[in-house]
């Protein structure tokens, strides 16, 4: 034991410990036990993804839940897996082929799919191995992939069922179209970026006279598809024009002027050009007023045959040419700068094009009703519950879901078109002949399903549905889903709808919505900002446990995490504290390994005190985890271990070993509390706890342990010991206040206000003297003169200062320190009074300055009090 290192190096044990867990199958689930089930399915990361801080937070919280419930005797199941990420993966493989000057069209669909599978085997799924660096306790034997045969069959079954029930249909509708990826994309796959554009005010001549209506637009190129001008019916400026006609500039098309409440009176001039084929709102207005839909773009964003002289121009070039022509014809009233949010494809960053396209859709309203009721009735709890309102708002206004994508990688839509009778065949397995005419001239739909369609089935398809497998039977519904708020609607809501529809059960009982991980200033992390903190780099530098504990400690419900390396380093120091305490216990550990139960009647009150405090800590920790208050759970065990166990109990144990005062009992209790504390810490910091637990030499792994609940409490001993520590703290505070070095021995006087504690203070007088660093303690019934004092409801402490400090010199030191602080105090105070500064400075900087100002104010108040007290001694 004397060879134990003074510092631990997590690199030396983390990888080996994880290998040991895998080798011993500690993560694997047995569905045939009688244990209560607890299950989670991992939100499947994209096969193209790599670990970022959002993933690290997400899986850390899940791992805490799994390990916590395992310690509490549950049969736990955590299913890992990946999403095939249709568009993203296709883009990656296309780029790989282009490096060899090969286009996907050169090799055809089948060969391209083979290339994707080859890439998946060689390079895909890196993120799952990266997750293992965090120590995740997933059952890797049950790893799933959304393109697995079992999951693919589940997708086809669901599609066919919904189609035959009339909930899936095919129609021309407005979709988000990516001209680069050449596919429709979901709302989630559209990222809105603020761009600096222009607002073009264009004159539209009235058909019956030479007057003009001026229309403001950000996209003058779309005038080629205009089929109406719309005004708000309440807009007095334009009431007289409703029912008349105007002429579209350049192309001279005659279009009606209509009234519609959806027109924003405050945008531009209040009169809007309506292009039903290229704007979602215009599309809806067009449907209401039976307007013609004129598509002016091809699928790549070039002007098509409806663009006349502008045919074959790319959309940005067409804009330039059309504006030039409008200027020549004196049809531009003005052009102003205009910043606005524009949708871009989240994969290739290309500006999306709203486009009417023949697509497959799911009717959502019939599915949404039951999903709303599941949350209303409490069958599913969303935590924090403020997200319920957002969930309901989205569900009440839900639109039909476009589920088809014009790419090659993904679940091919199980629809076959008969060339003979033109009917469609919708089947789970590929049909050999047409159901209607018997012809074998069938051609499958070229589209694939939206990636979110397969992931909507994830909680039950991963467990073998539609088969009633042992896993499905025991572990479905799952207990909890941990996810980010950004996919509450696009994934979580759809899982609820599909789970209720196909299993008649909710897919999970709780949805815990975690916050975003931002930088220390509160900014979103991004490569462009250069503020990304790479979790793998952090693990390499500080350890997995330090990262996990930091994320957990900052994971307050409803509050984004502001992360910095300094915070991670701070919790790495906590690991050192754990190791130092453990090293002390291991080096002095009782060889006999006495059972604490055998010593319970002979231990001291401070031993009972630490046992009692730990028992309550274990209860608090458990309660916080069950309520998903991860930050409070982390700080509960942090404060107990550092401030209660290390700062108090270990120090007392050192004294008792040195003085040989019930040394065996002290070490037995110290070992007991260390072991039980490691169990509490284990869900958050799995590696260091396993490492130290193995050195303690009890069971083969902390995985075999039980959660330490219902340990005995000792309220009386807890109360009395707290009073001993109160006296020590009061003496230490006087030292700190008057800058008295620990090496300077003091005398202390205790004046009782409550005789209840006389005996216990007398009994523990030597511990008080040792920890407070005082030579003598006297009991007094009077106020001592020329002494620093500290008062509590039960005691008053006096420390004579004569001969201890030079009061004149101390006053000079304190005054000098006060002047220095006052300078900074005034600097920050003036900054925070400056209106111009408050208007222009970033909010994060202002908050930082406010915090610094408050800190300086607190220091000043303390200094003033101490100076006042010292001045009284001089006056005496």
Describe the structure.
The chain is 45% helix and 18% strand. It has 28 helices and 29 strands. The longest helix has 33 residues, at 843-875. The model has no long low-confidence stretch (mean pLDDT 92).
What does the overall shape look like? globular
Low-confidence stretches: none
Q: Give the rounded overall mean pLDDT.
A: 92
N→C terminal distance: 57 Å
**Number of H/I helices:** 28
Q: Count the strands?
A: 29
Please state roughly what percent of the residues sit in beta strands, choosing from under 5%, 5-15%, 15-25%, 25-35%, 35-45% or over 45%.
15-25%
Alpha carbon gyration radius: 36 Å
**What would you call the structural class?**
alpha/beta
What's the main sheet like?
Answer: 7 strands, mixed
Summarize the structure.
The protein has 876 residues and is an alpha/beta fold. Helix 9 crosses helix 14 (488-503), helix 16 (544-553) packs across helix 17 (565-588) and helix 17 (565-588) runs parallel beside helix 20 (630-659). The longest helix is centred in the C-terminal third of the chain and has 33 residues, at 843-875.
Task: Note the main attributes of this structure.
single chain, 876 residues, alpha/beta, seven-stranded mixed β-sheet, four-stranded antiparallel β-sheet, 29 strands, 45% helix, 18% strand
């Amino acid at each position: 034991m004397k060879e134990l290192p003074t510092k631990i190096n997590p690199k030396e044990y983390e990888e080996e410990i994880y290998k040991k867990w895998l080798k011993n199958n500690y993560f694997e689930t047995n569905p045939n036990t009688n244990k209560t089930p607890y299950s989670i399915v991992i939100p499947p990361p994209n096969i193209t993804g790599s670990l970022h801080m959002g993933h690290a937070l997400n899986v850390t919280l899940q791992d805490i839940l799994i390990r916590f419930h395992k310690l509490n005797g549950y049969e736990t199941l955590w299913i890992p897996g990946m999403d095939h990420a249709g568009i993203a993966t296709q883009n990656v493989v296309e780029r790989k082929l282009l490096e060899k000057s090969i286009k996907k069209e050169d090799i055809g669909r089948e060969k391209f799919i083979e290339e994707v599978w080859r890439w998946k085997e060689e390079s895909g799924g890196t993120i799952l191995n990266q997750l293992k660096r965090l120590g995740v306790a997933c059952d890797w034997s049950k790893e799933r992939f959304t393109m697995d045969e079992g999951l693919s069959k589940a997708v086809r079954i669901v599609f066919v069922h919904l189609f035959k029930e009339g909930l899936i249909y095919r129609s021309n509708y407005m979709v988000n179209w990516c001209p680069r990826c050449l596919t429709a994309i979901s709302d989630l796959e559209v990222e809105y970026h603020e761009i600096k554009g222009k607002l073009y005010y264009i004159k539209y001549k009235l058909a019956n006279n030479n007057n003009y209506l001026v229309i403001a637009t950000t996209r003058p190129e779309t005038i080629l598809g205009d089929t109406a001008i719309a005004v708000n019916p309440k807009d007095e400026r334009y009431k007289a024009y409703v029912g008349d006609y105007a002429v579209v500039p350049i192309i001279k098309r005659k279009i009606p002027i209509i009234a519609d409440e959806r027109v924003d009176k405050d945008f531009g001039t209040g009169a809007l050009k309506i292009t039903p084929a290229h704007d979602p709102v215009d599309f809806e207005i067009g449907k209401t007023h039976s307007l013609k839909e004129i598509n002016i773009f091809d699928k790549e964003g070039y002007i098509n045959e409806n663009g006349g002289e502008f045919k074959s121009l790319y959309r940005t070039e067409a804009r330039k040419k059309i504006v030039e022509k409008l200027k020549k014809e004196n049809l531009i009233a003005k052009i102003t700068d205009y910043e606005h949010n524009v949708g871009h494809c989240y994969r290739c960053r290309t500006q999306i094009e709203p486009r009417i396209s023949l697509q497959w859709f799911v009717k959502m309203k019939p599915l949404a009703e039951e999903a709303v009721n599941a949350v209303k009735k409490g069958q599913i709890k969303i935590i924090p519950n403020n997200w319920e309102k957002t969930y309901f708002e989205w569900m009440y206004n839900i639109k039909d879901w476009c589920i088809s994508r014009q790419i090659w990688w993904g679940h091919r839509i199980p629809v076959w078109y008969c060339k003979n009778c033109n009917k469609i065949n919708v089947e789970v397995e590929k049909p050999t002949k047409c159901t209607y005419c018997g012809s074998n001239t069938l051609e499958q739909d070229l589209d694939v399903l939206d990636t979110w369609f397969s992931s909507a089935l994830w909680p039950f398809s991963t467990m073998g549905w539609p088969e009633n497998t042992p896993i499905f039977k025991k572990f479905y519904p799952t207990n909890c889903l941990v996810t980010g708020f950004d996919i509450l609607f696009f994934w979580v809501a759809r899982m609820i709808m599909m789970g209720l529809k196909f299993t008649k059960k909710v897919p999970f009982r709780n949805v815990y919505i975690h916050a975003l991980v931002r930088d220390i200033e509160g900014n979103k992390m991004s490569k462009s900002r250069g503020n990304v903190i790479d979790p793998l780099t952090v693990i390499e530098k500080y350890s997995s446990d330090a990262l996990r504990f930091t994320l957990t400690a900052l994971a307050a419900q409803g509050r984004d995490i502001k992360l910095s390396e300094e915070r991670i380093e701070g919790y790495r120091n906590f690991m050192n504290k754990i190791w130092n305490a453990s090293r002390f216990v291991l080096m002095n550990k009782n060889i006999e390994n006495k059972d604490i139960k055998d010593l319970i009647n002979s231990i001291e009150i401070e031993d009972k005190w630490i046992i009692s405090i730990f028992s309550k800590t274990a209860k608090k920790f458990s309660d916080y985890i069950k309520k998903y208050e991860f930050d409070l759970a982390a700080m509960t065990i942090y404060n107990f271990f550092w401030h209660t166990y290390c700062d108090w109990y270990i120090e007392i144990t050192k004294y008792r070993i040195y003085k040989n005062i019930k040394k065996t009992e002290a070490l037995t209790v110290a070992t007991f509390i260390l072991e039980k504390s490691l169990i509490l810490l284990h869900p958050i910091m799995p590696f260091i706890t396993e490492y130290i637990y193995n050195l303690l030499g009890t069971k083969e792994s902390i995985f075999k342990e039980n959660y330490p609940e219902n340990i005995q409490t000792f309220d009386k001993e807890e109360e009395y010991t707290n009073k001993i520590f109160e006296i020590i703290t009061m003496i230490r505070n006087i030292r700190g206040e008057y800058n008295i070095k620990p090496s300077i021995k003091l005398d202390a006087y205790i004046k009782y206000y409550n005789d209840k504690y006389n005996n216990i203070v007398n009994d523990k007088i030597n511990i008080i003297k040792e920890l407070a660093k005082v030579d003598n303690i006297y009991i007094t019934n009077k106020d001592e003169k020329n002494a620093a004092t500290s008062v509590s409801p039960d005691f008053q402490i006096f420390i004579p200062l004569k001969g201890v400090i030079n009061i004149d010199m101390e006053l000079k030191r304190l005054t000098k320190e006060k002047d220095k602080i006052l300078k900074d105090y005034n600097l920050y105070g003036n900054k925070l009074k400056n209106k111009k500064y408050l208007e222009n400075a970033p909010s994060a900087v202002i908050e930082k300055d406010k915090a610094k100002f408050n800190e300086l104010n607190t220091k000043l108040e303390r200094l003033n009090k101490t100076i006042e007290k010292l001045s009284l001694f001089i006056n005496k």
